[in-house]
Design a protein that fits this description.
Its main location: membrane. One of its GO terms (molecular function) is transmembrane transporter activity. The protein is mainly α and 399 residues long. It is 81% helix and 0% strand. The chain has 17 helices and no strands. The C terminus is likely disordered.
Length: 399
C-alpha cells in the first residue's frame, strides 16, 4: 500500500495518469455506439467491421516508427503529437457521411493512437525507480481502464439521450484537457544515449518481446471482436440492454488492474498473463452460445478480468527484459501486435459473420486466442508443467 501511495504522490505519474484517463475516454466514447450508428445508416456488417478494424491498421503502420521517435526524442513530444491527431480525427466525425469518410477518420485515429499510446506507456514506465515500475504501470493501466470503462459504459446511454454529435464534442473536450495537462504540467523525460540502442530487428526477434506480442495479439483479437459485434448481436436478438456487457467489463477490468501489482509479485508477470489469456478465450467462447443479458454480463466480467490483467503484465515483462535504451521500441512492437489483433478481429471476422453468423464468429475467435496462448506458453515456459505452477516468485531483472 505504501508503494502505491508513493507512486500516486509522484507529480509525473499524476500527469500521465490524468492524461491517459482523459485521452482514453475521448478515443473510446464512440466505440460502443459507432457500429450501431453505422448499422442504422445502412452499412453492412462487413463494412462496419472494416471501418472499426482499420484503426488498428493505421496504428500498426506507424507504431514501430513511433517507438523509434520515443527512443530518440523522449516520450512527451510524441504524446502531444498523438493527442493533436486524436482531436483532428474526432472533429472529422462531425461531417463524415460516407463509407470512405468514416474509413479515413478511423485510419487517422489509429495513427494518433500509435503515437500517443507508445509515448504514454513509455512515459509511465519511466517515472519511478525500477523496483516500482510494475506498480507504476499497474496504476497507469487503472487510469486507462477507468477512462475506457466510463466511456464505454456511459456512451450507449448518452447516445440514446443526446445523439451522435454531442458525444464527439464531449470527446474533443476530454482530449483537450489531456493535452493541457501534458503541455502545461508534465516535465520532459530525456531519452537514453543513442549509443546504447540495438537495431530494431534484434529487438523484434527476441523471445522476450516476440512471445508477449503474440499473447497481446490474442487479447486484443478477443477484445476487438467482442466490442465490435456484441452490440450487433444484441440488436439482432432484440436485447435492448446490451450496455450490461460494457458495464460488467468496466467493473471487472478496473478491479483486475488494481490487483496487478500483487499478482505479478506473487505469480510473475508471464504466469498472470497466461491465465488472463485463457479468461479472454473463455469469454468469447461463451458468446458463441445463445445471447442473453446474463450471457453478455458474464462474458463482460470474464473479458474484463482477462483484458485488465494481461496488458500491464506483458508490459512489465517486456520492460524488465528489454534494453532500457530500446524501451520505446520494445513497447511499440508489443502494442503493434494488439493493433493487429483488433484489426483482424473486427474486419476479417465481419466477413465470417455475414457468411456463417455470429456464433461461428465467436467460436473462431476463441480458437485463435487459444492457439496464440499455447504459443506463448511454449515460448516462455518450454512446456514444463513445474514452470507454470511453481510458487516461487519470478526472477526477472532489468537488462
Amino acid at each position: 500500500m505504501k508503494q502505491f501511495i508513493d507512486i500516486v504522490h509522484n507529480r509525473q505519474f499524476q500527469n500521465i495518469a490524468l492524461s491517459q484517463l482523459f485521452t482514453v475516454f475521448s478515443t473510446n466514447l464512440l466505440l460502443p455506439v459507432l457500429p450501431v450508428y453505422l448499422k442504422l445508416r445502412g452499412f453492412s456488417d462487413g463494412q462496419i467491421g472494416i471501418i472499426m478494424g482499420i484503426t488498428a491498421i493505421g496504428a500498426l503502420t506507424v507504431r514501430p516508427w513511433a517507438g523509434l521517435r520515443v527512443d530518440e526524442r523522449g516520450s512527451r513530444p510524441v504524446i502531444l503529437f498523438g493527442q493533436a491527431l486524436t482531436a483532428l480525427g474526432l472533429a472529422g466525425f462531425l461531417w463524415a457521411n460516407s463509407f470512405f469518410s468514416f474509413l479515413g477518420l478511423r485510419l487517422l485515429q489509429g495513427v494518433a493512437m500509435a503515437f500517443y499510446g507508445t509515448g504514454a506507456i513509455t512515459f509511465a514506465s519511466s517515472v519511478e525507480r525500477p523496483e516500482n515500475t510494475a506498480g507504476a504501470i499497474s496504476l497507469y493501466s487503472v487510469a486507462t481502464m477507468v477512462g475506457l470503462g466510463v466511456a464505454t459504459g456511459s456512451a450507449p446511454l448518452l447516445y440514446d439521450q443526446l445523439g451522435f454529435k454531442p458525444l464527439i464534442i464531449l470527446g474533443l473536450a476530454a482530449v483537450g484537457t489531456a493535452a493541457a495537462v501534458m503541455r502545461l504540467r508534465a516535465g520532459f523525460i530525456p531519452p537514453c544515449p543513442a549509443g546504447e540502442r540495438v537495431p530494431f530487428s534484434s529487438v523484434a526477434r527476441s523471445r522476450e518481446v516476440l512471445a508477449p506480442t503474440v499473447c497481446l495479439f490474442a487479447s486484443n483479437f478477443a477484445h476487438g471482436t467482442a466490442f465490435t459485434f456484441v452490440p450487433l448481436v444484441a440488436l439482432s436478438e432484440g436485447i435492448t440492454g446490451y450496455s450490461v456487457f460494457f458495464i460488467a467489463f468496466t467493473v471487472a477490468v478496473v478491479s483486475a488492474r488494481l490487483g496487478v501489482q500483487p499478482l505479478t509479485a506473487r505469480w510473475g508477470a508471464e504466469r498472470a498473463a497466461l491465465f488472463a489469456s485463457l479468461l479472454n478465450a473463455l469469454s468469447v467462447l461463451l458468446l458463441a452460445f445463445k445471447a442473453s443479458a446474463a450471457v453478455l454480463a458474464l462474458s463482460g466480467i470474464l473479458i474484463g478480468f482477462g483484458f485488465g490483467i494481461i496488458f500491464p503484465c506483458l508490459a512489465v515483462y517486456v520492460v524488465q527484459h528489454s534494453n532500457p535504451a530500446n524501451k520505446g521500441t520494445a513497447l511499440s512492437i508489443l502494442s503493434a501486435s494488439g493493433d493487429i489483433g483488433v484489426a483482424v478481429g473486427a474486419s476479417v471476422l465481419g466477413v465470417v459473420a455475414e457468411w456463417l453468423g455470429y456464433k461461428a464468429l465467436f467460436a473462431a475467435a476463441a480458437m485463435v486466442v487459444l492457439v496464440c496462448t499455447y504459443y506463448f506458453y511454449i515460448s516462455l515456459f518450454g512446456g514444463r508443467q513445474e514452470a507454470l505452477f511453481s510458487s516461487r516468485e519470478k526472477d526477472c531483472h532489468n537488462v
